[in-house]
Amino acid sequence: MPAPETGSARPGAERKRTVALTHPDRLYWPDAGITKDGLADYYAAIWPRIAPFIVDRPLALLRCPEGIDGPRFFQKNAWKGMNAHIRTLDDPATDTVEHLIGIHDLDGLMGLVQSAALEIHPWGAACRDWERPDQLVMDLDPGEGVAWERVIDAARDVREHLAASGLTPFVKTSGGKGLHVVAPLKPEADWEMVKAFSRTLAQTMAADCPDRYIATITKAKRHGKILLDYLRNQRGATSVAPYSTRARVGAPVSMPLSWEELGQITGSAQFTVNNAFTRLTTLRADPWAAFHTARRPIQP
């Protein structure tokens, strides 16, 4: 990777942004030199790639108004003084008005930047059909003492199981400790079916290889094992979006990968705001280019 830049998200010409940012020089990631303005540059540059994963679907945000070294909190509902470009969404399954959060365009994403949203976690379903997920996420979360190579092996194992069920899996770094294996779905099955499918997958793998995998959240049992977290696949649950930044040291991002390059990746935080754009401009092809045409139905 080229040496990272500081203060800016990417090289090259400035992309057009129309939403004014207050305090654009505020440091969100002091260690990496990433400012609010630098974060806006990053998202403007990768907007065509991130947009299909975050537009017109409910979002949960991790907000850090003073940057990663200050207070932080998750935000799932609209708030007083919210940027005008952020949409409010009303859950059709509830009688009460909840005012969930969503965006419709690049201006909305810039509104999230202005609001210090350093992580973007979308639902697995779009607003056009709240009750039928259009993706399945298996979050591979390594416990203490698990080598990175074992996480890679686990992703390949999940890939084989999903492919055997007729799905087309894709892989990305989480930007934290592990990997996410994501299968695009035709939005036909409901939440309960998708959750049951992913739970069966996790429990089967844990039963087959109990020394390697675990399907329960219990931390006391996770040392030396990889948690196969299937709970991302239930109504209202979220997982970090592809290309979203993470509120962690180094300004890592959740980066889509090709299966062929997976063995060359050295860790989940390898890609950051400072090197992501360089990676994307030097790739011969988008590793997730076929994601939205690869949707398959889950079989009961």
Automatic annotation (TrEMBL):
One of its GO terms (molecular function) is ligase activity. The keyword Hydrolase does not apply. Coiled coil: none annotated. InterPro entries: LigD_pol_dom, NHEJ_LigD, PaeLigD_Pol-like. CDD domains: PaeLigD_Pol_like. The keyword Glycoprotein does not apply. Keywords: Ligase. Residues 35-288 form the DNA ligase D polymerase domain. This is DNA ligase. It comes from Gluconacetobacter dulcium.
